[in-house]
Design brief:
The protein is mostly beta strands. Helix content is 0%, strand content 47%. The termini are far apart. 19% of the residues are buried.
Length: 279
């Protein structure tokens, strides 16, 4: 800290004192401002003037106090939830710092570049977002005129919103007792379970998470859909696949109208008890 005295007079020596004791050598007055140099030791500095001819002394008005400011300490950054769904804001907190928050910064490229969050100075807690990608944060802290310090870095993992996708059957129509595969595509997230319905309204759980799903051997038309979840985001259901089940073919019984006819005559053959169409 630079200490000086304005309005010095010729013929007067000026002695700087720290806490009432002389500090350094007296400085001769110049009829202008004089300097005692930079002082780094803690204390209260005053000046005593001595007239060179008479030896009279007088205390000068004013004093200067040198104090030590603690170095800036960035502290510890923390976050309300370390994993969130896309479109959700992050809640930031800073503790253990020495100094005032000069601003919060974030990066989405592993720290290659840091961007200052607008209007974040002076805030120990901050909501920022909504976020759409994994993001890391730190606070910049400054105490007095000391060099600023960075806080610890804290990150939040951002999962994309769940998307159910579309379930598609390998065969949309099968014969009773036959199976097919249901494939899920265009989903975002993991399959939690498959669900099965006879009518697309009332659904029951199939514990399988396989993709594709083997339908087993249904004996009636079934609807199939997947339940999907991305991270901690809300679950989503897929567009359903419908597998139409036809009963097995039954040949039935043929019966002639007349069991015996003359050569050159005709009769009618009747088919009964069949399942399916005559091909």
């Amino acid at each position: 800290m630079a200490i000086g005295l304005s309005g010095s007079q010729s013929g007067v020596n000026y002695q700087l004192q720290k806490n009432g004791a002389n500090s350094g050598s007296a400085v001769v007055g110049t009829d202008s401002t004089i300097s005692f140099g930079n002082k780094i030791f803690i204390g209260t500095y005053t000046v005593v003037a001595t007239d060179v001819l008479s030896g009279d002394t007088a205390n000068m008005n004013g004093s200067a106090t040198v104090t030590t400011i603690p170095a800036s300490v960035g502290g510890t950054a923390s976050i309300g939830a370390g994993t969130i769904c896309s479109g959700t804001p992050a809640t930031l907190h800073l503790t253990g710092q020495t100094g005032t928050v000069a601003g919060w910064q974030y990066t989405i490229n592993d720290g290659d570049t840091w961007t200052t969050i607008p209007d974040s100075a002076g805030k120990d807690s901050l909501d920022f977002g909504p976020l759409t990608t994994t993001t890391y944060f730190q606070a910049l802290v400054s105490n007095g005129g000391c060099a600023p310090a960075d806080s610890s870095i804290v990150g939040v993992t951002v999962y994309p919103a769940s998307a159910g996708g579309t379930a598609t059957p390998t065969a949309s129509a099968v014969c009773s007792g036959s199976s097919t595969l249901i494939t899920l595509g265009s989903q975002t997230g993991s399959i939690l379970r498959w669900e099965v319905s006879p009518d697309g309204i009332t659904w029951t759980t199939n514990i399988s998470t396989a993709n594709p799903l083997n339908t087993g051997n249904p004996t009636a038309t079934k609807h199939f859909r997947a339940v999907v979840q991305s991270g901690l985001c809300s679950q989503a259901t897929s567009d359903p696949a419908v597998v139409t089940v036809s009963p097995a073919s039954v040949g039935g019984t043929t019966t002639p109208t007349a069991g015996t006819i003359c050569s050159g005559s005709s009769t009618t053959i009747i088919l009964t008890g069949q399942t399916g169409s005559v091909v």
